[in-house]
UniProtKB/TrEMBL annotation:
The chain crosses the membrane at residues 38-58, 108-130, 142-161, 173-193, 226-245, 462-482, 488-507, 578-596, 608-629. Residues 346-631 form the ABC transmembrane type-1 domain. It is found in: Membrane. Signal peptide: none annotated. Its main location: membrane. It is a multi-pass membrane protein. Residues 279-289 have a biased composition (Low complexity). Residues 62-88, 279-314 are annotated as: Disordered. One of its GO terms (cellular component) is vacuolar membrane. This is ABC transmembrane type-1 domain-containing protein.
C-alpha cells in the first residue's frame, strides 16, 4: 500500500527531470541558432571580401611580364623609377572564364539561392501578421540572418555580373562556406522543431505557445533552407566540374600541339584552312611559306597612344595595380629627411582621430539636452550641456577648428610632395633621348608634367575624406547596435551598402557621359581658335557661313552632352536621396514606436535623427569623391607612365 505514493513521487520527479532536460535541450538549440544567425552574414561577408581581395592581388601580380629580372632604373635624387611594362601577349589567357551558357547557369542558381532568403522574409512577415494576437515574432537573430545573408548573397550575385572572369574560386569557396553554415542551421532547426518547443514571442524567444511537433510555418522555413543548401551545393559542384573539364581540355590541347605532324611546313606560320598552294590533296601544308590566299598579311596590334597622353576612354585597371603604381611614388611623397614634416603628418592623423570622436559625441550631446529639457523633475537651465554641445559643433567638420588646423598643418606636406614630384618629372623629361623629344606631343607632355598635384589631391581625398567617412559608418553601426538595438544597425548597414553601390555604378555610367561633354567642349575651343587664327583664309574663300555653321554645330553637340551630364547628375542625386530617405523613414518609425511605448526616451529619437543627418552629408558627396578620385587616378597615371619613358 505504501508503494503507490512512492511511485507517484518517483513519477513526479521523473517528469520534472524530463521537462528540465527538454528545456535544457531547447535552450541549447535556440542558443546555437541565435549564435549562427548572428555570425552567418558577418563571417560570410568577411570571407568573401578576403578571398576576393586575395584573388585580385594574385591576378594583378601575374598580369604583364615579369620585370623582376630587369635592372632597376633610378631617377633624380637616386629614387627608384617604375619599371617599363612590357607589352602583354593577349593570346595567352591564363585565367579561366566560363562560356556564356555556363555563366548563365551560375547566375540563375545564385539568383535562386538569393530568392530563397526573400522567401524566408515573406514567411516571417506573413506569420507575424497572421499570429499578431499571439504577439509572435522571430526575434533579432533571425532578422539579422535573413536581411544580412540576403545582402551578402546579393553582393556575390552582383560580383558575378560585374567582374571578369567570373565566377572564380572566391565565389566557389564562399558558396561552400555558406552551404556548411546552412547545414548547421538546418540541423539545429530540426533538433528544435521536432521536439517540444516554445514558439518565439516579441521580447521573449521562448515565451510563446508550446508546440510538440513542427508547425506549417516551420515546415516552410525548413523547406526553403533545404532548397538553399541544394542550390549552394549545386553551385560548388558545377564549378568543380567545369574547372575539371577545362583543365582536361587544356591538357589535351597542349598534348596535341606538342605532337608535331611530319607534313607541317618548315617555313609556314599557320595552317591553311583550305590547303596550301603547293600542298597535298588532304589539305596539309606543304613545304614553303606560301598560303592558299597568297596575300595573307601579318597581324599587327593597333597603335595605342602613349600612356602619358590624355586617354580617350576610361582606363581599365584593377585597384591593386593602382596601389602598386602609387607605391613607386612613395619616395617622392614621404618626407624621409625632414623630421618636422614627419611630425606634421603624425599630428594631422591624430587630429583626424579626434575629429572622429567629436563626430560621435555631437548627436549624443544633442540627445542629452533633449532629455534634460523633457525631464519634468528638472527645473533648471541645462547651461553646461548646451555649452558643451556648442563646443563640439565648433570643433566638428572640415570647416571647424580641428579641420582648419589640420588643413594648415598639412600645407607644407602637400607642397613638399608637389615640389618633389614636379621637379623629378621635369628633370626626368630632360634626361630622355632626342628620339623621344622629336616624336613627342608637346601639349600632352606639358599636361602630364602638370599632374603632380593630382596625386596630392588623391591621397588627401582618400586619407582625410573617404577613410573617415567609412570609419564613421562603421562606428555608427556599432553604436546603434549597442545603444539602440540590432534593427537600427541593420538599417544603417543596408542603406550604406545600397547607397555606395548605386553611387559607384551611376558614377561609372556618368564618367563616359562626362568625358563626351569634355571632348565636345575641347572641340568647341578648337573650332573657335582655328577660325580666329585663320581669319585671312576664311575671308579669302568667303567661308564665314561655313565657319558659323561649324561653330554652331560644335556648340549644339556640347549642349546636348551637357544636358545629359546635368540630367544624370540630378538622377543620381535623387536616387541617393531616395535610398537614404527610405532608411531614415524605417528607422524613424521603429524609434517613434519605441518612444510611444516607453522603450526609448525622446532624447534617443533626437540622437537618431542627428546621427543620421551627420551620415547623410558625407554620403551625399560620395559620388563627387568617387569622380574626383577617379579623375585624380587617371591624371596621376599619366605622370606615372611619363616616368616610365627611358
Amino acid at each position: 500500500m505504501d508503494s503507490a505514493p512512492l511511485d507517484n513521487a518517483t513519477a513526479t520527479v521523473y517528469m520534472k527531470h524530463h521537462r528540465h532536460g527538454h528545456w535544457v535541450a531547447e535552450h541549447k538549440a535556440q542558443r546555437l541558432l541565435s549564435i549562427v544567425h548572428f555570425a552567418y552574414p558577418i563571417v560570410l561577408l568577411f570571407f568573401f571580401l578576403t578571398t576576393f581581395t586575395i584573388r585580385s592581388i594574385l591576378t594583378a601580380r601575374t598580369d604583364g611580364s615579369d620585370d623582376s629580372k630587369s635592372e632597376p632604373q633610378f631617377g633624380p635624387g637616386g629614387k627608384p623609377l617604375p619599371k617599363k611594362k612590357a607589352p602583354v601577349d593577349n593570346t595567352k589567357n591564363t585565367f579561366l572564364d566560363f562560356s556564356r551558357p555556363r555563366k548563365l547557369l551560375f547566375e540563375w542558381l545564385s539568383l535562386a539561392a538569393t530568392l530563397t532568403l526573400a522567401g524566408n522574409a515573406v514567411t516571417v512577415i506573413v506569420h507575424a501578421l497572421y499570429a499578431r494576437k499571439e504577439e509572435w515574432w522571430c526575434g533579432q537573430a533571425t532578422v539579422v540572418y535573413i536581411v544580412g545573408a540576403f545582402m551578402v548573397y546579393t553582393l556575390i550575385l552582383i560580383s558575378i555580373f560585374d567582374t571578369q572572369p567570373s565566377p572564380t574560386w572566391a565565389h566557389a569557396s564562399s558558396w561552400a562556406l555558406a552551404a556548411a553554415m546552412e547545414i548547421v542551421l538546418l540541423a539545429s532547426s530540426f533538433a528544435l522543431y521536432t521536439h517540444a518547443h516554445h514558439e518565439p514571442k516579441a521580447g521573449n524567444p521562448s515565451g510563446g505557445h508550446l508546440e510538440r511537433e513542427m508547425t506549417e510555418w516551420e515546415i516552410t522555413e525548413v523547406t526553403l533552407d533545404l532548397v538553399r543548401i541544394i542550390l549552394l551545393l549545386a553551385l560548388v559542384a558545377f564549378y568543380i566540374l567545369f574547372v575539371t573539364l577545362h583543365a582536361r581540355s587544356q591538357r589535351k590541347q597542349s598534348d596535341s600541339q606538342a605532337s608535331t605532324s611530319e607534313t607541317t611546313g618548315l617555313l609556314a606560320e599557320d595552317r591553311a584552312e583550305a590547303g596550301a598552294v603547293n600542298g597535298s590533296a588532304n589539305g596539309a601544308n606543304g613545304y614553303g611559306a606560301t598560303q592558299s590566299n597568297g596575300h595573307k598579311k601579318p597581324k599587327k596590334a593597333a597603335d595605342a597612344p602613349a600612356g602619358w597622353e590624355k586617354p580617350t576612354t576610361t582606363p581599365s585597371r584593377s585597384w591593386w595595380e593602382y596601389i602598386r603604381g602609387y607605391s613607386l611614388f612613395f619616395p617622392y611623397l614621404w618626407p624621409s629627411k625632414d623630421r618636422r614634416l614627419q611630425i606634421a603628418v603624425i599630428i594631422c592623423f591624430a587630429i583626424m582621430l579626434v575629429q572622429r570622436g567629436i563626430q560621435f559625441l555631437v548627436p549624443i550631446q544633442a540627445g542629452k539636452i533633449t532629455d534634460d529639457l523633457a525631464d519634468e523633475n528638472k527645473t533648471g537651465m541645462p547651461w553646461k550641456a548646451i555649452c558643451l554641445y556648442i563646443f563640439y559643433r565648433l570643433l566638428q567638420g572640415n570647416n571647424g577648428l580641428l579641420g582648419a588646423t589640420r588643413s594648415i598643418i598639412w600645407i607644407p606636406v602637400s607642397q613638399y610632395s608637389f615640389r618633389e614630384l614636379s621637379v623629378a618629372s621635369f628633370e626626368h623629361v630632360h634626361s630622355l633621348s632626342l628620339d623621344f623629344h622629336l616624336g613627342k606631343k608637346t601639349g600632352e607632355v606639358l599636361s602630364a608634367l602638370g599632374k603632380g598635384n593630382a596625386i596630392n589631391n588623391f591621397l588627401e581625398s582618400v586619407t582625410f575624406q573617404v577613410i573617415p567617412m567609412l570609419v564613421d559608418l562603421f562606428v555608427a553601426i556599432g553604436y546603434f547596435m549597442i545603444q539602440f538595438d540590432v534593427y537600427y544597425a541593420l538599417i544603417v548597414a543596408v542603406v550604406t551598402f545600397w547607397y555606395i553601390y548605386l553611387t559607384i555604378r551611376m558614377a561609372q555610367w556618368r564618367a563616359e557621359i562626362r568625358r563626351q561633354m569634355v571632348n565636345s567642349d575641347r572641340e568647341v575651343d578648337a573650332v573657335k581658335n582655328d577660325s580666329m587664327v585663320s581669319y585671312e583664309t576664311v575671308k579669302y574663300f568667303n567661308a564665314e557661313a561655313y565657319e558659323f555653321n561649324r561653330y554652331r554645330e560644335a556648340v549644339d553637340k556640347y549642349q546636348k552632352a551637357e544636358y545629359s551630364v546635368v540630367l544624370s547628375l540630378n538622377f543620381m542625386n535623387v536616387t541617393q536621396n531616395m535610398v537614404f530617405m527610405v532608411g531614415l523613414m524605417v528607422a524613424s518609425f521603429v524609434a517613434a514606436y519605441q518612444v510611444t511605448t516607453g522603450q526609448r526616451s525622446v532624447g534617443k529619437f533626437v540622437v537618431l535623427l542627428t546621427y543620421m543627418a551627420q551620415l547623410q552629408g558625407p554620403l551625399n558627396f560620395f559620388g563627387t569623391f568617387y569622380r574626383m578620385i577617379q579623375s585624380a587616378m587617371i591624371n596621376s597615371e599619366r605622370m606615372l607612365e611619363l616616368f616610365k619613358e627611358q
